[in-house]
Amino acid sequence: MRTTRARGRGAVLAVLSVLVLAGCGGAEIQVSGTAPGERIEAYEAMAGVALGQVEDLWGEDAVARPVEVVLPGSAAEFAELTGGAPASQEAPAVTVGSLDEAHVVVHPDSWDRLTPEGRQAVLTHEVTHLSMQGDGGVPGWLGEGLAEYTAHRTSDLAPAAIAGSALDPVRAGQVPTDWPDLGSAPVAPGPVGAAGDGADEPAEGSTWGGYALAWLACLYLADTWSEEQLVELYEVVAGGSTLTDAVPQVLGVSEAEALAGWGEWLTTL
């Protein structure tokens, strides 16, 4: 989920902290919170993986150091640390703050709700948002889709397996004619991230469908053109261009042509 501005951290974060040191003693990763110690250690390892995944696509030093991850021990503490906005409370993790103050807060229920692969994907998604700090505004589907693209980039799962029921409308003949509208609700974990029997579908009313389609839009652009052009499209739009102007500039086709191609591609999944 994209950045929220709240920053209510206090003494609770001093309970436990894990630092990964690199170079001349500079902190690469800091994981802290009131969650159990073994969970903090697990997220310290996952944060290192996430950092590598993000910078493999976005470039070395794309993410400011230290990468800070906070693990509250309760839902109430998560609400306090993220500002309590209803739209954030069901998200598996949230990026809080901006620029040098940006950090990731992980919902305590994520550990049980998500598979190990899902936990990693959620953390990589949020670390991608850390790399986007200071960038200009982009359409929600492009920013969130790119974060999802980064998170699933090395997955061995087929796109349809990750998207799950998000593709049901397409299979029913409802092919999108516009880019995804994510609305303002949090993303629920999709099938790849759910754990346990009967937990492989997003909850009713969740926005996983929009996030999945945003990811699939970015996957289509990367597969049809290239990853480099996908990232360039983001950068051109973040630099102030409209999507209508940026698509032909970067991809060499009109936005309408790109949309039509994406819709056709979705029917093949």
Q: Please give the radius of gyration in angstroms.
A: 18 Å
Structural class: alpha/beta
Provide the residue-averaged pLDDT.
Answer: 85
Approximate strand percentage: 5-15%
Chain oligomer state: single chain
Number of helices: 11
What is the CATH top level name of the largest domain?
Answer: Alpha Beta
Distance between the termini: 25 Å
Q: What level of helicity do the residues show?
A: 40-55%
Number of domains: 2
Basic shape: globular
H/E topology pattern? EEHEHEEHHHHHHHHH
CATH architecture heading of the largest domain:
3-Layer(aba) Sandwich
Contiguous low-pLDDT stretches (5 residues minimum) are 2-25, 184-205
Strands side by side in the biggest sheet: 1-2-3-5-4
Q: What about the largest sheet? A: 5 strands, mixed
Q: Please name the CATH topology of the largest domain.
A: Glutaredoxin
Number of β-strand runs: 5
Protein name: Basic secretory family protein
Region (Disordered): 181-203
Biased composition (Low complexity): 183-194
Quick structural summary:
The chain is built from 11 helices and 5 strands. It has helices spanning 37-58, 75-82, 110-113, 116-131, 140-152, 159-163, 168-171, 208-224, 227-238, 243-251, 255-266, and strands at residues 17-22, 26-33, 67-71, 93-96, 103-106. Residues 183-194 have a biased composition (Low complexity).
